[in-house]
Amino acid sequence: QACCKRLLPVRKCSASCNAACRRAALAMRFLFCASGSTGHVNPTLPVVRSLTELGHEVLYLTFEEMRGKVEGAGATFFAFVDVQPECYHNKAPHDPEGEYGVIVKELGLDHTSFLSVFKVLNVVLETQLPGTMRFLREKQPDVVVHDSLPLCRDVPFAAQVLGIPRVGILSLAGPGAWLTHRPATMAPLTLADASVAVQNFGPHAEATARINDAYGLALAPGLPQPPGKLDTFKDSTILVTTSEELQDPLTDDLAEAYKQDGTSFVFAGPLLA
């Protein structure tokens, strides 16, 4: 019946609809995305399962290796490799870090340092966004639920451009955890040091300028500031997979920055299947 078509986030049924029709009309379409790492996908699966059991439609964008987990939770699987041909172009389709490792090698960077990943984040993002924008326009999700860490930035940014509500899932010990989480792998380099190195890396600067111009985003010239900030949180609710009592310390600067970005945090604790 016409009243049951997926036209608006809030759907109305006429009095002639039966109960099943009304339930269908109220169902929403959620799009989930996560990188191919098990530790990023697993926390999302109980949420996927709960939504599908409530009658909502869930689409899931990730890597082929996660197909079984995603479909087992009741979602419809989509592969990054298929959605983002501009990014993959027959390169490393099964690498858990996607195109990042390929670009790091192509640009002659040290593949053992996470600083190299920071340097190519926006280089890769520029190739991801066209396909992601097409996908979101085609599927028209009511809500995007995304891995909040940097390897899936294209989906929340595309949703931001298109005005789609976003919910992040943060599988770290709170919003303050990124400040010490990644620097531990780059020591003695700090995030402040890394930001300078990223800003001075030509391919990053060029890609950042093109992205900001094309999509109206305001990506930082280096790393998001203040140090430890994640730029996928803006105007979003972030579901944190730890308790508020056990979270890592949050600096005053970070707390104020997230407040200015319109970010709210919900400390859900471990999300278990």
TrEMBL record:
<protein>
    <submittedName>
        <fullName>Uncharacterized protein</fullName>
    </submittedName>
</protein>
